[in-house]
């Protein structure tokens, strides 16, 4: 699960750091001199526009802060505090240690240390949560003050994430194939179900997004072909999810494709759009308004790159839901 990081940005120096490298993101070209090619490419994939939100912490006494920093993982939520309130949240995308880069960005403190334990963030959201409200949510004494960098445990993190609805729409947990298979087994086993088979799960969604997007923050809709930030794309099942067998659900590499929230997902799911022999078609049996018809006319007859020998059975099953077997689309 995601964990919450408490990150004060209260004193004069921290406020300047926040202004210099979070409010005003760092140009990736500046960072390039201090990082290797592999890390550069990873960051470039995460920040295609080359503008990177950067924060860092010192090692702390007896490396206490560094020990906590090592727990941070992509998808964790950082909440920045200032003037006795939480004023900003951000999603952590990547961590790495780099003393030279930190010194370039922030200099060194009076002890000659720099903020070398770096984490990159994205999806910044403005908040206005008083310490009193925070303490009530998490179960601290009403006068508790957030004074230093801290990595919250699962229980405390869940309270904050649930109450404030702080979750990444782009960075998903790194779910393994084994975890995914186990989750599908449970969802399909009626002895374990306390909800309909059509319901989704965090594990299933996270793994499908991992398979489809491969760590990228932008991707192409499988229907219209336009490129969107991945938080505007759905991991849509090609064959209606509720009709999939266990074996089909386990076929994560072929059962799903990305569809945008700008209309393609709904139009495909409800049968207005069909894919036949690799070509996107309009379903003439559907009653359409002028606007819907205009939208579909821009898409129909395009090739669908997700039609393959491995996926065509799923597209054909989807088509049969909306047209008779012997009819033409």
UniProtKB/TrEMBL annotation:
Source organism superkingdom: Bacteria
Q: Which UniProt keywords apply?
A: Endonuclease, Hydrolase, Nuclease
Molecular function terms from GO: endonuclease activity
Q: What name does the UniProt record give this protein?
A: HNH endonuclease
Instruction: Tell me what organism the protein belongs to.
Output: Enterocloster citroniae
């Amino acid at each position: 699960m995601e964990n919450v990081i408490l990150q004060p940005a209260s004193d004069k120096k921290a406020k300047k750091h926040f202004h210099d490298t979070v409010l005003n993101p760092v140009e990736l070209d500046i960072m390039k001199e201090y990082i290797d090619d592999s890390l550069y490419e990873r960051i470039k994939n995460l920040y295609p526009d080359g503008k990177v939100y950067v924060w860092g912490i010192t090692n702390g006494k007896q490396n206490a802060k560094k020990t906590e920093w090592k727990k941070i993982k992509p998808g964790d939520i950082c909440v920045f505090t200032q003037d006795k309130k939480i004023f900003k949240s951000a999603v952590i995308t990547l961590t790495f240690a780099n003393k030279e880069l930190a010194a370039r960005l922030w200099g060194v403190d009076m002890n000659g240390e720099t903020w070398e334990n770096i984490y990159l963030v994205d999806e910044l959201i403005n908040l206005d949560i008083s310490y009193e409200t925070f303490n009530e949510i998490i179960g601290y004494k009403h006068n508790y003050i957030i004074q230093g960098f801290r990595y919250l445990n699962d229980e405390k993190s869940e309270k904050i994430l649930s109450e404030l609805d702080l979750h990444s729409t782009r960075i998903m947990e790194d779910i393994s194939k084994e975890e995914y298979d186990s989750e599908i087994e449970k969802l399909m086993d009626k002895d374990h179900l306390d909800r309909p088979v059509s319901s989704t799960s965090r594990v299933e969604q996270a793994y499908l997004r991992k398979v489809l997007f491969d760590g990228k923050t932008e991707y192409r809709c499988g229907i219209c072909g336009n490129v969107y930030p991945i938080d505007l794309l759905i991991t849509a099942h090609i064959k209606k999810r509720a009709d999939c067998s266990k074996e089909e659900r386990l076929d994560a590499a072929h059962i799903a494709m990305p569809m945008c929230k700008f209309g393609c997902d709904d139009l495909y799911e409800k049968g207005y759009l069909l894919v036949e022999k690799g070509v996107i078609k309009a379903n003439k049996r559907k009653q359409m308004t002028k606007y819907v018809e205009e939208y579909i006319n821009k898409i129909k007859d395009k090739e669908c790159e997700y039609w393959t020998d491995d996926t065509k059975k799923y597209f054909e099953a989807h088509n049969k839901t909306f047209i008779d077997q012997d009819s033409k689309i």
